[in-house]
Structures are given as structure tokens and as C-alpha cells.
Amino acid sequence: MSTSGWVHINGARKWHYVREDGRSLCGRWAYLGRVPPEKGNDDSPDNCPTCRKKLAALSHSGDTP
Ligand SMILES: [Zn+2]
Fold it and tell me: What is the DSSP letter of 30?
């Protein structure tokens, strides 16, 4: 896995944003799947709220994951 983005993880109800190391921004999940994460749709109601908040904070600081 070499990209970051939104993924749907087995067992999770929401989509989570994973960084390049496979860890979700909320810290609850590790993504080991083979499907590439999706970019965009940052405001989808299906996204994990914690991941959304952390992603927003990161993009505000200019340090995109
Ligand atoms: Zn999350």
C-alpha cells in the first residue's frame, strides 16, 4: 500500500482515511487490503467523523497525508 485515502474496512461501519503506512487517522484501524484507497468524498456521511476531523486539520496546516 503506497497511497492514502478512504477505505471501507471489513468490520467497520464507516469509511476510514488511511495514511501511507496503512493506519487510519482515528487510530482504530489498520488497512491491509489490496483495493487502493479512494480520494475525495471527504464530506461523505459514511466517513468516520474522527478521520474527517483529522484530515481537515491536516489539510488546514498544509501537511497533506
Ligand atoms: Zn476513522
Answer: B
